[in-house]
Amino acid sequence: MGGNPRVGSSPTFGIIDSKLKLVLVPGCVAVAQRTLDPLAQVRILARQPTKIRKSKTRTIMEKVKHVTIYTDGACLGNPGPGGYGAILLYQGHKKELSGGYRKTTNNRMEIMAAIAGLETLKEKCQVTLYSDSEYLVKAMSRGWAQKWRANGWKRNKREKALNPDFWERLLQLCEYHGVQFSWVKGHAGTPENIRCDELAMQAAQQPNLPVDEGYIQEPQVKAT
Question: In terms of CATH architecture, what is 65-204?
């Protein structure tokens, strides 16, 4: 099993290429450009009067796909062989994906699971992403990862922020999609969480896993 996500052939998360059209926004000059994705339109409308903004935003957001993603990471030894799993849910459709590396850490696999899930989406979406990793959820929902990046990938003057390669990929995906990170208690009966754990463990045990090029062997300090 490789490091890239294994996904099915379902067209559920596909995209229709945008075409050039005349974009009309109240109070703005009409310009010919590629069709703006819904989330970009919402950002433009933020400059409009409240009544117009609320009405237009409601209409636009109804067109955005709302996707639910469950993720989990696992590592045999920490560091050791690791795997990640993700489940994408959209309007009754489900897609599972997984992958792994021969030597990595549990925290890296938790981040990679989120990356893999979001990279599967082929157009901008509103996403609710569930993970049992407090490290992942707090770093993203509380803005820690953004601060680490702004500080040159340092948690403070003395300590480096670990896993900057994966954090950078995840931050870029979250700048593209609208993502809400939510914590779910692990091994507490949530079917999707249990299944993601199974996918991650199975992936970690596969032979001939690829090298995690970004892994640096050093203690995984607790995120604060």
Answer: 2-Layer Sandwich (3.30)
